[in-house]
Amino acid sequence: MKNNTFFIMKTIPVWRAILYVLLSLIASTLTAAILYSSLYSYQKQSGAVAFIFNAVSSLRGVLVPLMFGLFVCFYLFLFYKMEKRRYISTEFNRMIREVELIANGNFDHKIEERAENGLDKLATHINNVVIQARKAIEEERRSEQIKNDLVTNVAHDLRSPLTSIIGYLNLINEDEYRDEVELRAYIQIVYAKVERLHHVLNDLFEYTYVQNKETLVNDQSINIEEMINQLVVQHRIQMQEADMHMRTFITADHPVIIGDGNKIARVFENLIQNAIRYGKEGRYIDLIVRDSSQSVQVEVNNYGKAIPSVDLPYIFERFYRVEKSRSEYTGGSGLGLAIAKSIVTLHGGEIEAKSSLGKTSFVVTLLKKI
Question: Taking the model in full, what pTM does it have?
């Protein structure tokens, strides 16, 4: 307990303090009288007692006030201890009531931390436990909401192509086509829808996998410059089909990191696909690699339509689309950026997006091999 004497004395009502002083004076007077009477009675029976009595009598002008003062202090101390016990009991009861209030589900309630009552550490620990419990409850609710949203979004993304597939298969099954050319057109549409389903399901499994905190990362040395150059070659045909050009600007001296090569490659593949999908108007995709003493930074720029500032904070959320109609024309599953962020986070890195008129940048920062 801290030294809270002054505070406890402040809590004692004036009338009670006066009563304690009067009782102390009375008790001290009675004690002194009893003691003096006892010494006087026994002085004739004992030489030692007689000697003490005579010594006290000769110095009574000094000793009597001193002893009386000591008696008064002693009784006041007893009354103080009684008040202290009463105060601590009151504070404990108050804290018990507040804990019961929290236990009934009022997790927004906070116990007042009074340093003067000596229970501030206990109150602090209880408040910290309540905060952690509230966070756990909020996290549980958020997880449940995420699950519900995931089911809803997956159902939406699967239902649309499935409906089309069933519709065209019914037309084919019922021979409702004019000629073989129209039949082949129907089959091509069905095939495209199946590919779409396959793409969505693959992204969904990938997202679920990298969301798991226990996902194993196959750590190895990765040269980011070599990886970027390989990705440029892999996307050359797709870039030509989109009538776009990919440029690289590498200023890093030693862009080597530790991580899972397949997963890191998936990050940049998703960012490049996103740039092709939404940056066709700008015709160029720039890949910039720079490094510092502790990290490697890769910037993927496209020069298409800017992402609205209202959408920018949410683009890494699963199934979030800037185009609210959730059009299939862009070919995305709505999980590419969410997967990229999860993989980067899994590697202890950071990813951020910036967008202004005529330029959108995704900046990935990964820890360097030391």
Answer: 0.56
